[in-house]
Each structure stands twice: as structure tokens, then as C-alpha cells.
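Please, structure for the following, as C-alpha cells.
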Amino acid sequence: MDLSKYPIKSIRDKIEKVNNILITTHFNPDGDAIGASLALLNVLKALNKNVSMISPNELPFFLTWMKSATEIINYEQQPHIANEKIENAELIFYIDFNSIDRLAKAGDSFHVSSAYKILIDHHPDPEEFADLIISETKIGSAAELVYEVIKEIGFEEFLNKDIAECIFTGIMTDTGNFSFSCAYPGVWENMSELIKFEIDRDFVFSQVYDNYSESRMRLMGYCLNDKMRIIPEINSAIISLSINEMENFEYKPGDSEGFVNLPFSISGLKFSALLLEKEDHIKLSLRSKGKFDVNKLARKHFKGGGHMNAAGCEASMSLIEAESLLIEILREYMTELQ
């Protein structure tokens, strides 16, 4: 990847001139968000910087095995500690999101910070909320982009097995275990470099994909048997879960990871959505196959966003209303979904 259009040298200069550095990522962080952020955090720790990481909320349990994951500050649980870190920060890295709104309750504190801010992201149309924006939409994951930045800065000497496994986790999870967003040669070249650090690929895969509870597996079965709604005339599937249903299966953050993709095992489906009821809103995860752009749908109808084939958004209404509205909207795209 050619990063020459960005003032990469200035990033190294900023890092070398400051001591208090902060890293943050988006609300409901996934494997890419955590893997990319922890890779950068551990490189900066090797430089003996006073570096911390804040997550807007709790991270999924199946990502807590990564190096330094236990040091992540949960903004929802520790707002006073988090705000003190933000206030004292001289340099802030935003990882894997394109809008300050993705920081949820933490957004206001980060927005007013006087620290120099650098965004490293691969989502389209990033908002102007950082001093330096490194945005590459053609790359499959933020973790791979962070890896490229680390190399371009000249910090390769600090890479090790632990950091390589963080990067590998981000790439693996954001490409659906290398099933999409990885058709370009660069990702495989980077993978070959990471493997040289003797990363334990079987261990990483097991920690991420074979580390769930029995209740999560039963919830998945319930989704497929009782909650998956197929709308054949628009080649779409919708799974919706209420708060009570999730509580019945002892739901924990991250338990629904991957559920939105399950319907795509059905031949001919072009669109899938997972709707989760929260206390004050409905969270929608949208996925598509082919050229149907869920990013545009999410932006136009729900003020959300993401990638062409994967996006997220929220709706302030009941679960039934949100599902009905989504189906109504999808019917407007009937031609594209054929």
C-alpha cells in the first residue's frame, strides 16, 4: 500500500515529542477495532510512552485474551478515570470509525480535548473530527491499515508475536475469516509477514470462534428456528431479538456476533439484517451480497453507515416498528435485490 500521500513522518515526530498518548475505538468494538487498537498500544508501550486505551463500552469476552486487553478502560464503567485520561492526553489515535458519534457517551469528552488527533480508518466518507485523517477504503480492515502505518513510520523493530496476533485477529475477523474484502494481493503479502512471527493461528481462531457459552449456541439455534424471517420477493432475511429474549439466553456482549451472516447460507439471499432491542433504541446490523449498497441505505434512512456490504445504524422506535420500516424500505430497492 502506498501511504506517501499522508504526512507519515509527522506522526513519528508527534509520538516522539509527547508522553501521554490515548487510543480509542468505536462503541460495541469488534475484533478489528480491538486488534488494531491493541497492536498500536503495544508498539507505543515498547517506546516507553504513557499510553492508555479507552473503549466506549464493554468489549466482547472472546477478545480479552489479546496482549494488554485487560488494561482497556471501559468508559461506561469508569467515566471518571477515562475523562482524566482524555484531559491529560497530548496525542489521541482514533481507530476504525468515521464519525465522532461512534464514540457514544465518550464522544463529547474526546471532541473538546485539545490533544492532537489522528484517525486511522477504512470506512467511507470520514467526518472531519481529527487533525490528521488516514483513510483507505480499499483495505479490508483497520488492523491491516494500522500495520501498514507502523511499518511506514519505521517502528517495525517493535513488532513481535503478541502484536502480530492482534493484527491477525483484526484482519481475520473483518474479512469474515478471509472470505471477503481480501481480494487484493496486499493482504496476503501482509499475512505472510505476520506468519513469520510464528503466530499461533489455530489458537487465535479458537479464542475468537470456538469460545462461546452453551447459552449463546442455544440463542443462535433459537434465531434460526424461531426468529429468522425470510422475505422471498426481495431475497432478504431479518432476525430480530427483544431484550427479554436475549435475557432468556443469558445474553452477554458479543454473543450475537456473526448472527447477521447466518441467513446467507440460504441460496439466493442478497440481504440480511439483525435487529437487537436496547433500552432506548433498536440496533440494526445490515449485510448484503454483490453490489447492493447497505452503507447508502443506512446513511439515507437511518443516519448510519459502514461499508458497501456491511453497515450499522439505530432506530428510535419499537422492535416491531423497526422491522416493518426496514421491510418497507427494502421494497423500494426490489429491483436491486433481484
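The chain has a mean pLDDT of 95. Residues 244 and 289 are 31 Å apart (CA to CA).
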